[in-house]
Amino acid sequence: MENTGLITFEYVNTVIKERPKEIHKGQCGRVLIIAGSVGMAGAAVLAARGALKSGAGLVRIAAPEELFDILQTAVPQATCMSISEVISLRSAEIYKAIAIGPGMGVDEKNYFLIKEILREYDGPVVLDADGLNSLARFDENLENIRQRKSPTILTPHPGEADRLLAALGENSVKLLGRIKSAELLAEKTGAVVLLKGAGTLVTFKGNGTYINTTGNPGMATGGSGDVLTGVIAAIAASGVEAFSAVKAGAFIHGMAGDIAEERHGQWGMTSVDIEEALPAAFKKIVGK
Ligand SMILES: NC(=O)C1=CN([C@@H]2O[C@H](COP(=O)(O)OP(=O)(O)OC[C@H]3O[C@@H](n4cnc5c(N)ncnc54)[C@H](O)[C@@H]3O)[C@@H](O)[C@H]2O)[C@@H](O)CC1
Ligand SMILES: Nc1ncnc2c1ncn2[C@@H]1O[C@H](COP(=O)(O)OP(=O)(O)O)[C@@H](O)[C@H]1O
Fold first, then answer.
1. Complex-level ipTM beyond the 0.90 threshold
2. Which range has the worst mean pLDDT, 89-93, 118-122, 273-277?
3. Whose CB has fewer CB within 10 Å in the chain, the N or C terminal residue?
4. Which of 193, 196, 201, 255 to mutate to test the pocket of ligand 2 (most atoms within 8 A of CB)?
5. Which of 163, 219, 226 to mutate to test the pocket of ligand 1 (most atoms within 8 A of CB)?
6. Is 198 annotated as a binding-site member?
């Protein structure tokens, strides 16, 4: 077992810093979010808003064209591109981080796109939801993640973690336990792994396993994980190295959940309330 510790305010305070006076949007991190499908445009909206409210300078959403009207109305700050264009974007260097998966659906076409990004893009990639499910279904032994040299971030909930573990020929989270499951995934893939749920875990081979100290049961509501994807992608795009970005992202997302709980209560809060509380959470961390 890796060394364990807690993700605390004091730690996150050293990761997220006040912005330099002369900074411009091109230096605040360009994020590409590949997400959404017909019936799940909301997942792309939540991930994009999560990134924008976590300081991303520019956010682009790659999605099916049928979703553009919804996306540009719900997130006017973001630009859109057709998901069919992404494949020709061989080296997407203009993006400082790419997030793939929320509400994307699972099929072979999406799998080929994910494979291409994992091979060609040499920045941090956040894989969530159907990004993980596609790999679990089509990528034997998760070879495309294992081969990667640049940072890969996996953010499964226990159901998604079970699918990834099965692809690796391993037992389920229930049988292995949360810590062992997260560490096994990290060890076998070389990725930074965040295992969601009460007491979110963040682990990276040889760097220890950390338990998040923020968050509450009110966050068990559809779309709250999609917001987290955007938060982590934005922090990674700002230049913070992957393991620290994931730890800080988990903490701030949970903190936004705690602010949403204060404002709306555990029963009534939704993922939009979490996303809307992100600015207050960042302000508490940075003091501005
Ligand atoms: N507005 C939208 O467009 C939304 C789209 N979403 C997308 O819907 C797709 C399917 O995701 P789902 O997560 O609903 O479906 P999944 O089939 O991946 O997961 C659902 C099941 O996973 C297990 N699970 C989840 N969290 C768990 C936990 N903390 N402990 C134990 N078991 C747990 C449970 O068995 C649960 O029924 C994803 O692409 C996701 O991004 C969802 O995020 C909801 C909102
Ligand atoms: N009981 C809980 N306590 C703290 N955080 C929780 C709890 N339940 C869910 N969460 C958090 O809410 C988010 C749920 O993400 P996920 O399961 O991917 O949902 P979705 O797919 O609907 O977006 C995760 O960040 C998870 O850690």
1. yes
2. 89-93
3. C
4. 196
5. 226
6. yes
Nearest residue to 168 (alpha-carbon basis) of 196, 145, 195: 145
Residue that the structure tokens 């929320």 belong to? 102
Q: What is the mean pLDDT of residues 135-157?
A: 97
- The one-character DSSP state at 150 is S
Asked if residue 103 belongs to a known ligand binding site, the reply is: yes
The count of domains in the chain is: 1
CATH number for position 126? 3.40.1190.20
CA distance 284 to 288: 8
Q: What pLDDT sits at residue 3?
A: 86
Q: Whose CA is nearest to atom 8 of ligand 2?
A: 220
pLDDT in tens, 180-213: 999 999 999 999 999 999 999 999 999 999 999 9
63 strand-pairing partners: 82
In degrees, to the nearest 5, what angle opens at C-alpha 222 toward C-alphas 221 and 228? 90
